[in-house]
Amino acid sequence: MKNIINIALFCLLPLLSKTQPANLKFENLATPDTGKIWIQPCQGRPAMAIWGHTNGLSVAIPQLNIMPRGLIRIFTPYLNHDRHVVTNFIAMEPVPSGQEQRGLSELEMSSWDPDIRGKRFWSSDNANQTSGSNEIFPARGIIEKENGIETLSVYIFSEPFDNGAKVYVRLRFFQNRPYEFELTSYTYENSIELNNFILTATMGNKARLRTLYLDKYEKSSADIWPYYTDDAFTPHTFFPLKDMIQDAKGFAYFIAAPNEKDPSTAIYAEGTHQHWKYTGKVATQYWISTNPSKETQGIVNGRYTYWASKSPIPGGISFENFEIKEPFKNGNRYIFGITPESPLDFIKKVREDN
């Protein structure tokens, strides 16, 4: 792999296009450049859209034949996973003003790609690429320094939602925080006004997240839904800001973890798809709101069976969607992380910072 320190950033930019090549497959795209600190898409030829830490968490957006669409894919090889095995996804779910119904980036049909489910995502090095760009030429990302810490930033846009929302997020990785990344949410021109722009981690069932760690108590999925055995989603359950852990900066933490010491030893029902079978180390997942309000809520739903299947989840019901909801303002800033620390060790560090 080329070292990103020695590679020139100058290249010819691809023409903007909503038309995708018919015959090219994801596996034919150029693999990312891997440097001492960062993973970034290579430039000047069709390339995989992957960004993040060389020795930590990285993310990708779907391209070409990669499904499901409308999701940011999260990779955690430091948990002894293969580099491109997805640990969780993040979907974009905007709620227009005066409404309750969410737009669903994963489940809505694309208006740009006929008969394809999931909104198309694309990337940019700035906030101006709102008209859509060819997904096989991803942005490289911008490397900067903030308070002496190197960062990598990239903007991820979605095609317009059926409800009129036009949204994007800036992703930012910090050299000294290898297990998390920042997501800052925005609308772009001619978007409908929003009540909320929810960024939801959609696949808690992969890690079998079952315990929420709150300020003064813990709450398990079995406590919330003791009798649920259907094959759909449970209703959402809400936790107010006052129940969340907050640090000295006022950041609010919504934390979830498995209740198994070694999830890789689980026994699965016959017919369970291989992609649900967790391998590697146990980890703690968390959301942080950096500017919470009294209306900030942590929200979860659950599943007894894996998504789109009848296969029961080993050990019983677990959390599936895991998110923070609050009133939308352009520039709302969140952090999502998957740390190999235990939840109690992670919380101890948060409290010690106070």
How would you describe the overall organization of this protein?
This protein is mainly β. It has 2 domains: 26-189, no CATH class; 203-262 and 274-353, no CATH class. Helix content is 5%, strand content 34%. It has helices spanning 204-207, 221-224, 343-352, and strands at 33-34, 38-40, 50-53, 58-60, 71-75, 86-96, 121-124, 142-146, 149-158, 167-174, 180-187, 194-201, 209-213, 218-220, 237-240, 245-246, 252-258, 284-289, 297-303, 318-325, 332-339. The strands form 2 sheets. Strands 7, 8, 9, 10, 11, 13, 14, 16, 17, 18 and 21 form an 11-stranded antiparallel beta sheet that branches. Strands 1-2-3-4-5-6-12-20-19-15 form a 10-stranded antiparallel beta sheet. The longest helix is centred in the C-terminal third of the chain and has 10 residues, at 343-352. The radius of gyration is 20 Å and the shape is globular. The model is unreliable at 1-18 (pLDDT under 50). This is DUF5107 domain-containing protein. It comes from Dysgonomonas gadei ATCC BAA-286.
